[in-house]
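Good morning,

Attaching, inline, the backbone tokens for the sequence recovery test we're adding to the shared suite. The designed sequence is right after.
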């Protein structure tokens, strides 16, 4: 009788600029991780191929074929139909929101079962199970990155409403305010989403405002203002970067506090590309920006930096694979 195979699962965090892949063992330890850029051109098929390639890279590091995994989970932006394994409306991915046959496509390319859920939801679930909110009964996850995503845990369980809960980025922080990429006005994401901040930075730069943001971007071989570009500009005291980040922090304080006033959660976890990159000093600034807007300001929630860092989304995606699933044979 052959010995039982060890349980290994894959996790993929699909972002607008990068794909993070991990392989976890049966104790939820990361045994391998790889990163690839998200394709900026093409269509849904190119996205699935890039995900499969990132998973293959991580599996090679772990010394296992993709088909030997128990399964792989994906955290994706967009509207998720987990039952059908289809993602729609992810406009920061190639295809401009066209349907992506995520689970079927990955199974064809990798030979293992695939599962998909919202990227912020899986990241928040990971922080609740293994990270900064472990042991809490309620939390609000604030994923500050290309957009502003949200995730909610109530009474120890994810709350998704009718499928569109926790759209924190589209909480209105200013009536008739800045135009959001969603087409509406005054959304939190219009002020704090990295994509909207870049649009505003380019507009200001064209109008003659001085900044080194784009010099730093080009020097780092980037085509977009990613989190590391903002961090470097802030370290150099770039006036435009400071102005736009200050504006974002103020909006985050108002938006997050409003959500806390509604939900009264125990913990707020700040994650996402910008959140984890800028770290604890900016978590403290968001905490301070919340205070004037909190109704129960005598007992504010704990506000913590995501403990799992850049790997949190991919780890959370890996947790989508049911623990009861049997390991596959090669």
């Amino acid at each position: 009788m052959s010995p039982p195979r060890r349980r290994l699962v894959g996790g993929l965090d699909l972002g607008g600029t990068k794909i993070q892949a991990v392989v976890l063992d049966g104790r939820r330890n990361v045994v391998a991780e790889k990163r690839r850029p998200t394709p900026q051109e093409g269509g849904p098929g190119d996205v699935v191929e890039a995900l499969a390639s990132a998973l293959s890279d991580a599996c090679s590091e772990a010394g296992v074929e993709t088909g030997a995994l128990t399964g792989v989970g994906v955290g994706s932006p967009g509207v998720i139909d987990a039952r059908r394994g289809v993602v729609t409306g992810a406009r920061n991915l190639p295809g401009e929101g066209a349907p992506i046959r995520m689970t079927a496509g990955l199974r064809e390319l990798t030979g293992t079962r695939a599962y998909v859920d919202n990227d912020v939801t899986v990241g928040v679930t990971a922080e609740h199970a293994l990270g900064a909110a472990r042991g809490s009964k309620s939390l609000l996850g604030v994923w500050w990155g290309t957009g502003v995503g949200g995730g909610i845990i109530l009474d120890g369980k994810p709350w998704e409403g009718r499928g569109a809960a926790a759209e924190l980025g589209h909480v209105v922080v200013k009536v008739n305010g800045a135009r959001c990429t969603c087409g509406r006005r005054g959304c939190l994401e219009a002020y704090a989403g990295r994509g909207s901040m870049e649009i505003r930075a380019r507009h200001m730069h064209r109008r003659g405002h001085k900044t080194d943001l784009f010099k730093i971007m080009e020097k780092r071989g980037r085509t977009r203002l990613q989190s590391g570009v903002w961090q470097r500009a802030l370290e150099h005291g770039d006036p435009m970067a400071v102005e736009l980040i200050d504006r974002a922090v103020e909006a985050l304080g108002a938006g997050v506090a409003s959500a806390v006033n509604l939900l009264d959660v125990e913990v707020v976890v700040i994650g996402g590309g910008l959140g984890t990159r800028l770290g604890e000093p900016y978590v403290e600034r968001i905490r301070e920006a919340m205070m004037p807007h909190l109704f129960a300001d005598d007992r504010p929630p704990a506000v913590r930096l995501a403990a799992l860092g850049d790997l949190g989304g991919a780890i959370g995606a890996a947790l989508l694979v049911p623990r009861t699933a049997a390991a596959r044979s090669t």
